[in-house]
Amino acid sequence: MSDSFFHPVSGFDLPRFAGVPTFMRLPYVPPEHERFGDVDIGLIGVPWDSGTTNRPGPRHGPRQLRDASTMIRAQHQASGIRPFEAVNCADLGDVGPNPADIIDSMTRITAFYDRIKQAGITPLTAGGDHLTSLPVLRALAKDAPVGMVHFDSHTDLFHSYFGGTMYTHGTPFRRAVEEGLLDPKRVVQIGIRGTMYDSEDRDFARAEGIRLIEIEEFHDRGVADVMAEAREIAGDGATYVSYDIDFVDPTFAPGTGTPEVGGPNSYQALQVVRELAGLTIVGADMVEVSPPFDPSGGTAFLGVSIMFELLCVMVGGPAQG
Amino acid sequence: MSDSFFHPVSGFDLPRFAGVPTFMRLPYVPPEHERFGDVDIGLIGVPWDSGTTNRPGPRHGPRQLRDASTMIRAQHQASGIRPFEAVNCADLGDVGPNPADIIDSMTRITAFYDRIKQAGITPLTAGGDHLTSLPVLRALAKDAPVGMVHFDSHTDLFHSYFGGTMYTHGTPFRRAVEEGLLDPKRVVQIGIRGTMYDSEDRDFARAEGIRLIEIEEFHDRGVADVMAEAREIAGDGATYVSYDIDFVDPTFAPGTGTPEVGGPNSYQALQVVRELAGLTIVGADMVEVSPPFDPSGGTAFLGVSIMFELLCVMVGGPAQG
Amino acid sequence: MSDSFFHPVSGFDLPRFAGVPTFMRLPYVPPEHERFGDVDIGLIGVPWDSGTTNRPGPRHGPRQLRDASTMIRAQHQASGIRPFEAVNCADLGDVGPNPADIIDSMTRITAFYDRIKQAGITPLTAGGDHLTSLPVLRALAKDAPVGMVHFDSHTDLFHSYFGGTMYTHGTPFRRAVEEGLLDPKRVVQIGIRGTMYDSEDRDFARAEGIRLIEIEEFHDRGVADVMAEAREIAGDGATYVSYDIDFVDPTFAPGTGTPEVGGPNSYQALQVVRELAGLTIVGADMVEVSPPFDPSGGTAFLGVSIMFELLCVMVGGPAQG
Amino acid sequence: MSDSFFHPVSGFDLPRFAGVPTFMRLPYVPPEHERFGDVDIGLIGVPWDSGTTNRPGPRHGPRQLRDASTMIRAQHQASGIRPFEAVNCADLGDVGPNPADIIDSMTRITAFYDRIKQAGITPLTAGGDHLTSLPVLRALAKDAPVGMVHFDSHTDLFHSYFGGTMYTHGTPFRRAVEEGLLDPKRVVQIGIRGTMYDSEDRDFARAEGIRLIEIEEFHDRGVADVMAEAREIAGDGATYVSYDIDFVDPTFAPGTGTPEVGGPNSYQALQVVRELAGLTIVGADMVEVSPPFDPSGGTAFLGVSIMFELLCVMVGGPAQG
Amino acid sequence: MSDSFFHPVSGFDLPRFAGVPTFMRLPYVPPEHERFGDVDIGLIGVPWDSGTTNRPGPRHGPRQLRDASTMIRAQHQASGIRPFEAVNCADLGDVGPNPADIIDSMTRITAFYDRIKQAGITPLTAGGDHLTSLPVLRALAKDAPVGMVHFDSHTDLFHSYFGGTMYTHGTPFRRAVEEGLLDPKRVVQIGIRGTMYDSEDRDFARAEGIRLIEIEEFHDRGVADVMAEAREIAGDGATYVSYDIDFVDPTFAPGTGTPEVGGPNSYQALQVVRELAGLTIVGADMVEVSPPFDPSGGTAFLGVSIMFELLCVMVGGPAQG
Amino acid sequence: MSDSFFHPVSGFDLPRFAGVPTFMRLPYVPPEHERFGDVDIGLIGVPWDSGTTNRPGPRHGPRQLRDASTMIRAQHQASGIRPFEAVNCADLGDVGPNPADIIDSMTRITAFYDRIKQAGITPLTAGGDHLTSLPVLRALAKDAPVGMVHFDSHTDLFHSYFGGTMYTHGTPFRRAVEEGLLDPKRVVQIGIRGTMYDSEDRDFARAEGIRLIEIEEFHDRGVADVMAEAREIAGDGATYVSYDIDFVDPTFAPGTGTPEVGGPNSYQALQVVRELAGLTIVGADMVEVSPPFDPSGGTAFLGVSIMFELLCVMVGGPAQG
């Protein structure tokens, strides 16, 4: 049971449009806060998009996600889980990037997550572009490679861009495999689609044993069947969940930089997370939410709705869909 | 057969973007008009959102719905019904609320609908937030409780908000049951979803015998099966249909104040209404359309498309889907 | 194999947001260009909306489609087809209309397509409103009527508007049948829906033997079954493909002038094209994309994604979905 | 004194967002209405943009102007004039154009204004693109040429477009002079600016004696001085006032099709009208308001604010600024 | 000199888009915080719009203003004042209103400001609609009436709306005068404009000795001259500054509910505040910022820029323009 | 006199919305084009924003500027200059940056401009963020320092950001002075305003002899007086003109990343350029146009209107205002 200090403000007490917007109206507990050591799950912003090769914007993601998150209430409708009562949740603030220096930014992010890990906190990250996952994994998988369930329309397994640039949002998991942060046999990528430069990323996946489930297979088999396989691939070991909002069809999530049409709808976007119940989740992220391309804010609201689903499976109980 | 006075202007005669926008280009027949007594179905605006606990805006709904409704033509595509020829339809104008006084506004609305009822007109209302349904039911169900088919992502059955406030858009049907306006055994709520404060509303529903069909059940069973049950619950008696636009997934209907992701798509949004054919509908409403959150106007167009479906089932013939 | 002159610029060489935006980053080869004679498939803009009876805007379609098309990469994800390597593709520029004279504009368009046809180029057109298809067919079907697979929510088979106006975006295929450009027995219209003025267009279709597949039938039977019938209707003969973006549900494609709710989603929007593989396509168009009603640009991106699918079936290989 | 039938609805009685939106909440009195003969000043919509050579949209102007006009109250702040009490004002509805036939549309418009003129009503028109002024003048100046005060960033005096097209929104006043509808010696054009094709229009103006006041002169001399000259040019004779919203700087009025930067601000936009007091105004128009390019609606609100100023000078009393 | 605890986060240390957005990146010090007693100037949000008679939205103002305020840096460009170093500034959080009960909300607001006043904190409020000023003044002027410099396009001096409703955003200063909170002889209202219902508010002003400076006088005399008079009227006594964002021309500040065209530009909007230097300011507010009508966020940014100017004159030194 | 090859397409021949959008409808003449050597003035895009410290977006600037530039016609209204006839102008395409590597990007940009310089072409650049000016100056001022007239609300003279990062859009001119590319005594910065971190940039300016004209001085003295001084500072030597769109008030130019309120209006924005006539301009840029923050496109249109003014003073004749 959580400590009442960690309970969010209720919309019955203070309307949802009021107050300084922390993630899900949780207390703001940055590392220097006295209660930092008591946090079980920490929500963290990584406002960063220097790895973006096309349309920037995810650096503004955490703030918009915090704003939209004040619409989230206390209880999961389908499972009845009340995550904020189950464990101590808090908003740990943002990791400050250096917008003009990719390497420096990655160093800062890894340092922050090292501290999170040492404090025994499980991080739920709001990106940031997908390169964010790499410095996070450098902290979380420092000691041993982890498995990963990866929702995305892209593999993000490319070797490099623009004539040899190694760190972009199209390369994080190539690096993560090369650095021994991911166990490729325990990695599954779901929702892959869109026109392709070439097959270099898929060749790498095949060679390493990463399982790709393309969108046609996803639509043909359905959520339950695909996710059963995903759970099997991830297995019992430590598993990271990386959720790129462009997994969802861009009509449901226009606020992103590299949309690909023909993806899952918003109901499926939630269901795939519910099906993660039972995994050993050591961290999760919601990345590529880009407010400048989301004038109505719907993408951010979907993003935090998914983050709430992630939180519910992270607190341990299986969410019944 | 309707009187030609009540026929809408054709887009072949006058382009759809031209003319003063009444609902569906029908004649404007306020209560003081000489033909008021000849109206069978009256379209009425209730531009009001004082019951809104979060994001206001539905007070602007009727005007935007009127504007979008000029795109509606004369004949239902699937059933062939031509409602404006079947019965006398008219735009009865708006009920003027008092934006700064909830009780006064409810009194004004009930008074207007008393007059409608006395004239033998069946009302099709464009809200307004969901509190609108309460003063409408006070007129329509004055003599005896009615059944209700209620499309929504929320139950609107809460006891009170903000420490005892009884009249908000989250409480109308709690009040309606308490006041004997609804027969809870003949009430079905479809599409319920989203994070919850607590289960107080559901406990009330269970205690009173109101049937809740949550979104998971809706998606699992499908429209036809769910609606067959809904028809059975409503039965042969007088039935009110209340359609909150947030029943529909917010990607299809972003223009609303309390969206919940994972809902039905626009085709299902129409189909559920077609399945109401055969019920004894004594009134219907389309509420919570909020133009400030609908920059492209798509929500209003979906709203009036649903209103046209409601109109077609109200004129009596079963719409074949 | 295509000539490297005709290869698009890669996003790995030049970021997708850079450069003068031609269709799919192809070389710009207007008729006066020295390589014009080597083009196999030509992408052409027809920025024109004088036939629009309601909300204008498609005249701005080609430019926005070109802009969005820079997001398209070289290879089809599901089939592996690399169309730009298979045949010589190029951006042939726009046909300049006369915005204030419908007849003059049609003459200009037909003259341009006569030249295209004489050069042996298969055109893939970006409209423009749907009247665009008529002057295009006057060139392509000059010698013999063609079949047509037509995706739309409207039949565009009306006789006239506004008291006798023969050339609007609601009449092109009535004219095309009357002029002997289309073989009605080889025409299928898919996705028809929305409120109707009357049944005059459907009566004409029935009398001529045009097959209409309304949206209810489409949703009930599914893409594969419907498209199998469509292929059968079109048969082996020369076939034109006309794709009105309003075929797709307006939530997925809000940027259009005459939306009708309840349509296919974006995945179905792509799948129907993939199912055209094997037909003898002599030309195709994507029409009614209207940027003023598409603030986020999502409609244009869906439009070019569909154009890429069209291109892949036009280069001949069957796209495996 | 006006008849109380012609008084607008007060926002104290019915909130401004409520009710069917007629111009300035005036009664709707189309020609067939029994009180038509009692109208002094008629507000008329001409939803038409077939003369637009670049970005269409003004066909949607009258509806958006009506919507915004519900914000206008009863009394002029500076002069104290209460126009709706001074004379009988009414919304006469829209003239229905034929969107696909320019000549037919002009005939319809002139016929409508013939009727207006015969009824002794002074028209205040909401366009529509600037070609609208031509068929209006054909009715109003049928018997004798009128003078004109013309606010615009363009002269609209070109001979033709696109190789000989005579009727576009760039040619109305060339035609009006040629047809003897305007007395060029009594015409003044104010605010002219923007890049030019060539000087053909200015050459015509000079040859005919039309006075052009370019924006530099306007900014140098100021409103009072420029308008004193304008009043002198128009003199005592019958004068038409034509106000193209693109006279105003596009930051203040983005909703228009052919903006030119560097224009007057909104205060100057009102002041120039106040300085028309004392002229013999036989008609006025507000044209080129284009809602698709005005997402926030500010242009329409400025447009109706200017229309209210026009109305105040039309009722006769000089508005003291 | 301020305590370093109260210094805002620098954009050189943490980019401006990062971090939980408090007002001007100041520490969040709600009343229960241990440093509350050390605050000199408190920035407070009142997210409330129940007094709005037309277009709601200001309840969302404080959050958007906080977001935009992260763009504000440490030093005033013209005067060199560094307010956050001069005195202890903090974000005191929001007062939670009851969105469905006006009287309850006013009670809550006054109670909060009583506490502020007792703590010796000078409040700088971000509204909320203009009714907000009334409950604030009930706390600040409890002991003696204050003077007021009021920037607005409306007087907000009406007696009542909608048949007797006393508390709306059009009536706060009528109530404040009646309740003895304002000394009318020391009140000046600047920028008044727009169409009027009638002159009832002005008659009241005249009778009470409130000075109205209408927009024409403002534009004729200029900022310096007008503000010299304003300073003289306010005199040496305790003075409240109330700044309605609709004082500014709606092109510069579209995000508001009751715009009136023809107002000051953004430079004048700042200059009028700079000219307040030297007054004894006991509180100030920025009200009527309405995010739903401000899609680009420019109004909020102007609003916080003005709040920074207010802060600089509140810390005491005269800002040299 | 220019060669007709270099004449833009007329809107009388091809409507402005038609055609592939090059800058001002000029021919596209990349360095490999056979006519490259004949170009006098080259319009170049630098789609890059890696130096942006706050809100990214200018990488999309060149494309939107090209789109808006199709509205520009052939002749300057006030001066009568026809720049495209005076000298050979062309669109030279974009310099491809490396979005994930600042140093690599700067190298690419300088290389491109070296080539431009060697060909004797005077560049008119469309950025890109303000860091763009540095690699451009490295080419243009390689041999000798140049003077500069700099329109901006910021000095861009900071030493570094984020703990030592030397290359951001806040540091280009500090670097340029350090590298000997600018002669500080011949540099004038006009329009400086907005809240400040500190005075470090101004201290540097003062020490180096750079003249700063803050916005208050600008508004007090007026365009003519300020620009006379600016011309004197720049003198007869080679001068670069750098125009940051945030010089203009953000209401007129919202599409930018670091707006500061209270700036010049659009007329002044043009006038300051006209006053540059007579200077020896060796290059000019328009930077910081950021489409994601410019939903209506007005900023880009203002940007290209200013570019046209720059072009007119670059072709040599003095533009009479």
From TrEMBL, chains A, B, C, D, E, F:
It comes from the Bacteria. Keywords: Hydrolase, Manganese, Metal-binding. Mn(2+) binds at H130, D152, H154, D156, D244, D246. One of its GO terms (biological process) is putrescine biosynthetic process from arginine, via agmatine. Binds 2 manganese ions per subunit. GO terms for molecular function: agmatinase activity; metal ion binding. Its cofactor is Mn(2+). NCBIfam families: agmatinase (TIGR01230). Belongs to the arginase family. Agmatinase subfamily. This is Guanidinopropionase. It comes from Roseovarius pacificus.
